[in-house]
## 1
Amino acid sequence: MRVLITRHASAAAKLAAILESEGFEIQLEPLLEIKFDVKPVSLKGVQALIVTSANAAAGLAQSVGERDLTTFAVGDATARALEIEGFRKVLSSAGDVTSLISLITETLKPDAGHLVHVSGEHIAGDLAGDLTAKGFAVRREVLYRAETPSVLSDAAIQSFRGRNIDVVLFFSHRTAMTFASLVVQTGLADDFASVSAICLSEACARPIRDLGWQKIKIAETPDQQALRQTLLSLRN
């Protein structure tokens, strides 16, 4: 089974190594390029940090020396990234903004200090607005940006036209939107009848639903391990 991974290059390479060890053939088509904007982040008067991606965790590690401040992670993958970077008080939510807000409001008091949300340039939802409505003061720090390509690679186009891709993996709404746009632009919209898509969430699947896939599968939970299990079940 040949699998196309649309994640940014560094994350895709790590996943590729895992999947290749399990017998999959892998082709990489990064639909995001991560560019960090490292800068000092003031922690004066801050009671906790909020981190909503592994890339934000990497950016935060380069921007602060403090490692003992309570840090909320949107999910376990982000929590692991923070712990690898040496953050010692990491609390992980269930992988979505709603559960993250619940964890924060159940753990913290608004009058104990403000919160810093570390993120990329593009975010889903309104985390700061929702927390502000509950009495918290939130400052957002953008520490990276994710840029999308303007075309699909020649290798990807040839693989789709040659019916050499069995499954495409999608990890974000933005990469799915980018893929759908580039597919239409390239004239590949009729080439997916024998290809399945596996998505991290329903929101991620939404932009690609009209491309005529053989199957679209949604991971049971929004994390890489669940997506990998979905891939394994599709092969079996």
Note: The first helix runs from residue 9 to 21.
## 2
Amino acid sequence: MANQKILDKKQEIINEIAKKTEEANSIVLFEYQGLTAMDANELRRNLKESGSDFKIYKNTLVKRAFSGLKIDLDEHLEGPKAIAFGTDAVAPIKALSDFAKDHPALVLKVGIVEGEIADEAKLKQLSTIPSREGLLTMLAGGLLGTVRDLSICLDLYSKQLEEK
């Protein structure tokens, strides 16, 4: 029988995984074998800039935490995997995808985005979405164009009324 301290420590880790999973808007499981320690630190820095983080857990502990949350990703938890947690739905996916372009050892496998399981194809599709700031900039640009057009129309209309 296992030592009670070890069992308590494992339960603590399971609770940590469950808590992070519940708090995150997106979770991405990815393969990291072949990354150097410097690469991992760079990835951690990139994820931190996007408001995300990643951690490596034992697959058995992740399976137990996920089964407690009624998440079935057991077939994807074979071999070494890391998990990225993000408060933004798309930020960790974009950060991992951008990092994977320069580091082919990193491979996105599966994720959970806002409660829905996303396979590799869905993750790839989500990685092409602009960031929240980018979308807001595009919206602001569109609104400014409309306001500018309205001001031109009003100016032309006022000049037309002055001529009469």
Note: The chain is about 60% helix and 15% strand.
## 3
Amino acid sequence: MFELRPYRKNEVQRPAYYDPFREMEEMERRFFRDPFAMFDANELTMFKTDISDRGDSYLLETDLPGFDKKDIKLDLNGDTLTIRAERHSESEQKEHKDKYLRVERSSGVYSRAFDVSLIDTANIRAKYEDGVLKLTLPKKQKTAPESRTLEIE
């Protein structure tokens, strides 16, 4: 699609011919300016979750490998359920900092929030086993609309 843009005096005009080396140089400049720009920031800080419908409830399964059970918090605030997991790395500790040659495992806080307005929040059950957090989220029971006769004044 053609885009009409105003000309800026300091803007570099690109040649009309294809130059693959110029494109490679631009890609290299963009990469070294912000090497993680090609990744979605949420992809790096969110954990993967599967939600399945079990009829009378939903099963939420999320992968949290390497976390201790004590580092996982489940908070319910109104109609929002927040799963928060925090990981601390050994390499962050002062006495271990100089001993590592390379550190690739990430540390920090990871969280996801879910709308639970259709869930019976009083009966949510949680289980953490083998790096997988499983939440059983029972559905709210649908109540039939109340039927009654109204008096005319």
Note: The chain has three helices and seven strands.
## 4
Amino acid sequence: MLAVAIVVIIMLIAIPSMQGLRAERALRESYERFEAMVYKAQSNAISQQRTWVLVWDKGAILLQPDSLTAEEKESGAAEGGDTLTVGEDESFTINRPAALLAAKEVPGEWPFWRSGACEPVTIAYEGPAGIWTAQFHPLTGKGELIDEKPR
């Protein structure tokens, strides 16, 4: 009986910390999904020597070229584009502090120029696993988590 009681107590202590680890992992995965889109945008910009843009759309973040080539216009699709699906219970918000327009007028777009450089931005995520905020460096496009709170 004593051994069973000890096992039950250990389980009661371990379960909440296991749930916290799951929430942290899910939150980290959301950051990694977004970071993969940033890497692909930068990679496409450098390899194709043209501007690629992450565009915030309803329910998704789209990766698309700034302008289509003649071949892409003819075929109707850009090679290398991708989509990050955003669930109904999550959101990615972009803040472009270097934009010259008022905050309400700034389009939900983030360009990556052919050099791979980009505008400095802060991205905020909120979802069922928690929230995070990351700053992205303009020269490298690399993100740095500045706030992370799992639920």
Note: The CA atoms of residues 122 and 135 lie 4 Å apart.
